[in-house]
Amino acid sequence: MDAIAAIKDRAGAGGPHRTDDERPLFDVAASVTGKSWRPRLDAAGEATALAIAQRHGLPDVVARVVAGRGIGVDAVEAFLAPSLRTALPDPSILTDMDRAAARLADAVERGEPVGIVADYDVDGASSAAILDRYLGLLGRRPRVHVPDRVAEGYGVGLVAVDTLAEAGARLIVAVDCGTSSHAALAHAASLGLDVVVLDHHPAPTVLPPTVALVNPNRQDDLSGLGHLCAAGVTFLAVVALNRELRRRGRFAGGREPDLLALLDLVALGTVCDVVPLTGLNRAYVSRGLAVMRLRANPGLAALADAARLSGPPAAWHLGFLLGPRINAGGRIGDSGLGARLLATDDPVEAGRIAADLDTLNRIRQDVEAEALAEADAMTLTLGDDPVVVVAGARWHPGVVGLVAARLKERTGRPAIAISGENGAGSGRSISGVDLGAAVTAAVEAGHLAKGGGHAMAAGLTVAADRIDGLRAFLCERLGPAVEAARARAGLSIDAPLSAAAASPELVEMIEKAGPFGAGCPEPVFAFAGHRIVDALVVGGSHVKVTIAGGDGARLEAIAFRAAEAPLGRALLAARGSVRHVAGTLGIDVWGGGRKVVLRLVDAAEPGRPHGG
Fold first, then answer.
1. Which of 381, 455, 517, 554 satisfies CB 3.0 to 4.6 Å to 277 for a cystine?
2. Cα 377 to Cα 371: distance, rounded to the nearest angstrom
């Protein structure tokens, strides 16, 4: 029986839904990362995949990938070819959108100075650049203020309002922030400034004073667009503004701005903010990647060159190559660099900013690595605490979120890293554990000065003498949920493959089921019984591997940031041995050639079902 047949046989025997005691794929009950390998498809999913292959003429592997993303037989064509024309809603379905468009149109017609306040992450930079570039096409270039992460903190603050007021702004537009900025927006109103907010963060019951607050996650919004990031909301605002200006005769006898040319920025913000790639977001990213391939935005083109991105950009390039470089400015440098890069039309300026961001990203990596090494040592003293809480006296506040994310990956537990410089902490959680709610409860219990977030991530401020109490509180509150979540932890495998079968043609067919990301996970394939021909550390932290199948066919693979992690250590120790490995597939374009690369996420030793 071949590997695919074995999966189908087990799925059929287990009924339409898998159970906890189902035999793991290839008997991997606990891999080197502690996961059980499970087929993504149950019996019903297998039947759907077969029907998709037969009706739509897709290869079995591609049909399995599509079915594994919850797509039914009748929805395959729309899934494989997402259309912005059909997915884009009437912007007016968003609460306050028409008021926002009218106020922005007034500013354009009157020639009023406009100020933009943006968050310091990729979504904020992308949102600011979308509005900046659109207004620039109308001859109304705004003033953009991105708060300093350490000096000003997140959101619209008094410094931002005063800075833009002094620059002459009469209208302030807050993008990717502002929904909870009561004090600052009240201050803006006292200065006679109008404010429009374009945001997506959770909204309080009582909203700050604004002319319009557009946020699909405000409690009285019924648009059903809560999965959008701020860049997606901002693009809809630009669509609404363009429509309002058209209604007022602004473009009579002239050419309207090309709104579709802004979709590369929408795609960037959508991927990097890790919102679900479903519905409108899927269309945004699919079309945005096509726009990005034209390299019409000087800033994005320069950043791609600085990141040494070869070949057409894919969604994972945005998240792993471009996004971290833009974020580096906000983490340890000038928080406004990203927004300026994405908005500029000057290739020379774009090249300079991209080079600066690339340098800052390398520095950020060093700062992060130093903090992570200290944090790793600290985790050894915490034993089996269900929540990892660590603090470093010299850790830069800009990297604590990254340290928390790495600790979560390495320990399989929620993690919080705290900077001793100012008590600022950031946390990352695991699926099934609501960290944001626990942090909010910790504020109410007096363990934190402030804090909040959502299920998978949270931010907080804590006094040094309260850290031990915070750790005890979180461990007690989240312990049962963490235990249950870790018991369910597993790696979903889309299909088994061999090195010989992983051809560029197959990968290109699989990529047609993309873009992949949050809500539409990148397919994971298992390569059973392949020999680790070679394994070595490259780039200081990555592990490069060559695997070979029983027929001698070879495939290059890499485990990113794994050199000091269990996966990397296991691969380095397995040179010359046979292992099961799992990962995602991509195509590396270099020097005019194309080759398949396997991005490793896990490995296991054959014949050891209870440990890798």
1. 517
2. 10
Identify whether the C-beta of residue 40 lies closer than 8 Å to the C-beta of residue 493: yes
Mean pLDDT over the full length of the chain? 92
CA Rg value for the chain: 25
Contact between 187 and 164 under an 8 Å Cβ cutoff? The reply is no
Torsion, Cα 381 384 385 391, to 10 degrees, reads 30
Q: What DSSP line would sit under 496-546, residue for residue?
A: EE-TTT--HHHHHHHHTT---BTTBPPP-EEEEEEEEEEEEEETTTEEEEE
Q: Which residues pair with 525 in a beta bridge?
A: 495, 583
Residue located via tokens 């774009």: 350
Q: Which amino acid is at 445?
A: A
Sign for the CA dihedral angle at 160, 207, 89, 245 comes to: negative
The two three-digit tokens of residue 41, written as one number: 């498809």
Residue recorded with tokens 């399989």: 412
Residues in a beta bridge with 388: 415
DSSP secondary structure string for all residues of 384-440: T-SSEEEEETT--GGGHHHHHHHHHHHHSS-EEEEETTT-EEEEE--TT--HHHHHH
Q: Which residues pair with 555 in a beta bridge?
A: 547
Cα four-point dihedral sign 491, 495, 499, 503: negative
* Interatomic CA distance for residues 521 and 510, integer angstroms: 12
pLDDT higher than threshold 80 for residue 2? no
| Residue keyed to tokens 């028409």 | 98
Which tokens in the block code for residue 350?
């774009």
- Is residue 360 within 8 Å of 324, Cβ to Cβ? no
Whole-angstrom Cα distance, residue 140 to residue 160?
20
**Going by C-beta distance under 8 Å and a sequence separation of 6 or more, which residues neighbour residue 464?**
391, 420, 423
- pLDDT, tens digit (0-9, with 9 covering 90-100), for 553-582: 999 999 998 998 899 999 999 999 999 999
One-letter amino acid for residue 514 of the chain: G
CB atoms near residue 298 (< 10 Å): 21
- Is residue 233 within 8 A of residue 198, CB to CB? The reply is yes
Distance, first Cα to last Cα, the chain: 25
Query: Would you say the C-alpha torsion 586, 590, 595, 601 has a positive or negative sign?
Result: negative
Say how far apart CA 177 and CA 155 lie, in whole Å. 5
Does the pLDDT at position 16 exceed 70? Answer: no
CB 317 within 8 A of CB 292: no
The position carrying tokens 């928080």 is 335
Please give the structure tokens belonging to residue 406. 């790495």
Neighbour count for residue 300 (Cβ, 10 Å): 27
Calpha distance 340→406 (Å, rounded): 29
Is the peptide bond between 91 and the residue preceding it cis, with omega within 30 degrees of 0? no
Please list the residues that pair with 415 across neighbouring strands.
388, 428
Q: What local confidence, expressed as pLDDT, does residue 518 receive? A: 85
pLDDT tens string 230-269: 999 999 999 999 999 999 999 987 889 999 999 999 999 9
Give the burial class of 553: count Cβ atoms within 10 A of its Cβ; 0-12 exposed, 13-18 middle, 19 or more buried.
middle
Gap between the Cα atoms of 460 and 438, Å rounded:
11
Q: What's the distance, CA 72 to chain centroid?
A: 26
Strand partners, 210: none
Give the angle 91-272-123 at the CA atoms, nearest 5°. 50
Pairing of strands 194-198, 212-214: parallel
User: What tokens were used for 555?
Assistant: 């495939």
Mapped onto helix, strand or coil, the DSSP state of residue 373 is helix
